[in-house]
Amino acid sequence: MKQTILFICFILLATLGRAQNIDSILAEPQTIELTISTPQPRLKETFQISLDINHLRANIFKSLAGKVQLSNDISATGNGELTINVNAIKKGKSEIGPLEFFLDKTKYTTNKIAFEVIDSLPNTDKGVWFRKVMTSETTFCIIIEQRIPANSKTTKKSDNSITFTTEPEYTDIVKFKDSYSIDGVSGGNSHSRTDFSTVTIHGEVRQFMYGYSVYYFNIEDKKSKIKITKDKFLNMPDDYRFEDIVIQ
């Protein structure tokens, strides 16, 4: 048991976020937030499940109360979350939680997360895919996925060294404009990433750059006819046939 607690302490020390008042954290209820990186993962897609660790951190270090005062500059990095990578293995709707566990005789409970696993992307190294996902009656997100063909490049330097890189045909992925407006809607959080992967087509292994973006929105006017049009986006490929995204 002692080894388990020491291991948890090590993880939490490595993920300390911005400085917080330990007394205020201890005063909060023992319900911690469970979140998911995407509301609609694809089959076999890797996604993240995260747990807010602020309450756990406070419980583990509560024995320090009255002995030391936490510095305003903890000098550590992280965002106060404990995250695990998982893979979607079965299509359809699913739920995670609520999780329940005890730490130092304190019971912790999380919320429940509902999500849906859908089909994998088609077997191609090129394309753009838009998805509308309703996350509640008044919230939704737009997920944009893109594959851009890429090739390996070998560069010989003057010092007789050789570098190997993977270069896509272009790097500007489809995204919402920096400034835009949609009637009846307000914007929320968003995040994007790119990485490289491969796909086998007719026995040939092809490389591509994969772009993934999620934009969250709040519905402010339930009576408004909400529609997202092509002019709201940047870097749309010339050969892509965009269809208006109708929310309600």
Tell me what the structure shows:
It is a single chain. The chain is mostly beta strands and 248 residues long. The protein has helices at 2-14, 22-26, 54-60; strands spanning 31-32, 34-36, 46-52, 81-87, 92-96, 100-103, 106-110, 113-117, 127-134, 139-156, 162-168, 175-176, 185-201, 204-219, 227-228, 233-234, 245-246. A hairpin with a 2-residue loop joins strand 13 and strand 14. The radius of gyration is 23 Å and the shape is globular. Mean pLDDT is 83; it is low at 1-20.
In short:
It contains three helices and 17 strands.
Helix/strand layout:
Blueprint: H1 2-14, H2 22-26, E1 31-32, E2 34-36, E3 46-52, H3 54-60, E4 81-87, E5 92-96, E6 100-103, E7 106-110, E8 113-117, E9 127-134, E10 139-156, E11 162-168, E12 175-176, E13 185-201, E14 204-219, E15 227-228, E16 233-234, E17 245-246
